[in-house]
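I hope you will forgive my troubling you with a question about protein structure. The matter concerns a single protein, recorded as an amino acid sequence and a row of backbone structure tokens. Please examine both parts with care and let me know of anything in them that strikes you as inconsistent. Here, with my thanks, is the record as I have it:
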Amino acid sequence: MNNPRKPTEEEVEQLVGTLTDQGYDHLDAAYLVEDAGIAVFDEYTADYPAYSGKVMVVVWGSLPACYAVYTWGTDGTIRFEVPDSGRSAFPSRLPEFKDYVVDIRLREFRRVCYDDEANPRMETIRFDSAEGDELLAEYIKTLDPDRSLFKRIAAIFRP
């Protein structure tokens, strides 16, 4: 039986580099990897398609349904294996708080509101506004301080 192990520092760096190559900002990639659950199988053997070698399974911190599988080529490079479903296995939902979407990259809370005639409009509250500071303070209290999302938002928050 092939039991998994935690990734080495080199494997973590390879994963961050692969995410960066796929278009993620290096810091964002590092935060994603820090929040993820990662298991490495050193001697995985598949029946079909024929593959034998090291496999890394990554369960992203946002949702258990967001996962990725990586294999290593004969040259030692790491490769993303596209799921059979063809769906992206990467985190795609932004966190939510009090009916707002929390967009850390844009540093704002957003939600769609409707007027009496059901016409939509976007409500945006910047993190650096008085209302944004208040919402951030409330949001931070709901986060696990050991997770990278907490650290990223706490670094933005102005006490």
In short: The beta strands are 37-46, 51-59, 67-72, 78-81, 96-97, 100-103, 108-114, 120-126. The chain has four helices and eight strands.
